[in-house]
Every structure is written in structure tokens, then in C-alpha cells.
Amino acid sequence: MSKSIIFRFSVILMLLLTAGCSSATLEESQKEAVEAAKDTFESPVEEASEETENFHFHLPSGASIKEKNANNVIIENGNHTYILFYNQNVSSDSEQLYELSVQDETDLLKQETFRDDERFGYFLIREVEEEQFELTAGIGGTKMTTQSVKDDMASDSEFMMEVVSSVKNK
Q: CA dist 1 to 144, 148, 153, Å?
């Protein structure tokens, strides 16, 4: 075999091995997403930079508001769309929205809860179709949802919990 053919074969083999090793499994992606949500829940809360009629919240850099009303905000960040919901009548330590969210266990792949002295948080992953997942991050009466793919779960969960953690009543 010539050196050129061996070199080409080696390059192709390396690319195949690298591609196979770099993609996390669904289970690993779920674990990373839960860890990102939990770490963000436990981190200091960012100051509010946006407001609606009923609440203030932090909007991370690069994100923009597509639409908002008193209790809902549609946020875009890159090619992702997120829906933020806020119920000012439900306290931050309430499990009410979480209980409603897990009532239907259909396609629920992962559910985790977090708690501190003043807040009850949760993170859910549902499969909505093959390779497409619905993520929900919530604290008390606030929750955010988006559709995600396996490789974006961790960054989406961090973004969502950062926003949800920052929501404060006006």
C-alpha cells in the first residue's frame, strides 16, 4: 500500500472514532442537563433586567423577547424558543405546578426536584418524538419550557433555570 492510501485511511478512521466518541448518550445528556439545572438553582440569582405587568426577570445575554403579556413571555435564544410562565398566586416553595406537570407520566424520561430554605425547584424531560425532547424547569409558580435535542439539553436547562430563578413578583 502506498503512503497516501495509508494516510487517507488513517484520517478517515480517526474521524470516525472521534465522531463516535464525542456524542454523548441520551442517558449522559439527561444527567448533564439535571446537573446543570441543579447547579444553576443553587447559584446566586442574577438581577432582573426585564419586566412584565406582574413580574421582573433576568434575560441572559444573547436572548430576546419575542412576545410578552402579564404572565407569559416567549423568549428566543439562537434557534431555540422558550416559554416562561408565571403565576403570582403560587409561592416559590409550592409544589403545585410540579405536581400538575408530572401527573401525566406519558413519555416522562426524567424528573428531578431541588429544594432550599425558600424554594422548591424541579426539572423534567419528556420525549415528544424521536430525538426531540420537551424540557421544563420550574420553581414554585414559575416554569419555563422548550423543545430540545439531546446535545443541547444541558445548555438549555442551565439557561432555563437561570431565567426561572430570577423571577420576582412586582
A: 58, 46, 45
